[in-house]
């Protein structure tokens, strides 16, 4: 069992693609899907983001927000969002501090990337589900099914 599961989600406050700050507190009282991904524009990351985009209306109708985080800068996120018409927030974690807090930071020599990990955070700010092995082609469907189960639990 993970040290994050059923615990308070690590706090974050990062810049989005428009250089505006968003924090974990911005989503208090709502369900949140937080997904970390390695790099804007790479094949797997594009597939994952586009599947979230394609399921965005359904996920949003469930009262859930989606936020993506990578170590790319805000300008890169802006291009990636525009190119693929992404309707959700992408946050920039250039030092990898937030990725590290979630156990999603990959470091090799001087290379740092976010690992492809995701978390479902409940309205109280608790991590209710985590994904350490993600298939970019099916992940958003998996998230939807797990949200249905989690939201039906009292």
Characteristics of this structure?
alpha+beta; 154 residues; 27% strand; two-stranded antiparallel ribbon; 5 helices; globular
Describe the structure concisely:
The protein is an alpha+beta fold. It has 5 helices and 9 strands. The mean pLDDT is 94.
Explain what the structure shows.
The chain is of the alpha+beta class and 154 residues long. Strands 2-1-5-4-3-8-9 form a 7-stranded mixed sheet. Strands 6-7 form a two-stranded antiparallel ribbon. Strand 1 and strand 2 form a beta hairpin. The longest helix is centred in the C-terminal third of the chain and has 14 residues.
Topology, please?
Elements: E1 13-16, E2 21-23, E3 31-36, H1 43-54, H2 56-61, E4 64-70, H3 74-84, E5 89-92, H4 97-101, E6 105-108, E7 111-114, E8 118-121, E9 127-131, H5 139-152
Parallel strand pairs: 3-4, 4-5
Antiparallel strand pairs: 1-2, 1-5, 3-8, 6-7, 8-9
């Amino acid at each position: 069992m993970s040290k994050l599961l059923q615990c308070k989600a690590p706090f974050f406050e990062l810049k989005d693609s428009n250089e505006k700050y968003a924090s974990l507190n911005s989503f208090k009282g709502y369900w949140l899907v937080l997904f970390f991904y390695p790099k804007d524009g790479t094949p797997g990351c594009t597939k994952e983001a586009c599947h979230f985009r394609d399921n965005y209306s359904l996920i949003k109708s469930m009262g859930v927000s989606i936020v993506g985080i990578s170590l790319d800068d805000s300008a890169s996120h802006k291009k990636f969002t525009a190119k693929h018409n992404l309707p959700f927030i992408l946050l920039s974690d250039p030092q990898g501090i937030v990725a590290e807090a979630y156990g999603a930071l990959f470091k090799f020599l001087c290379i740092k990337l976010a690992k492809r990990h995701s978390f479902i955070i409940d309205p109280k700010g608790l991590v209710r589900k985590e994904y350490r092995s993600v298939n970019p082609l099916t992940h958003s469907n998996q998230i939807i099914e797990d949200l249905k189960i989690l939201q039906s639990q009292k």
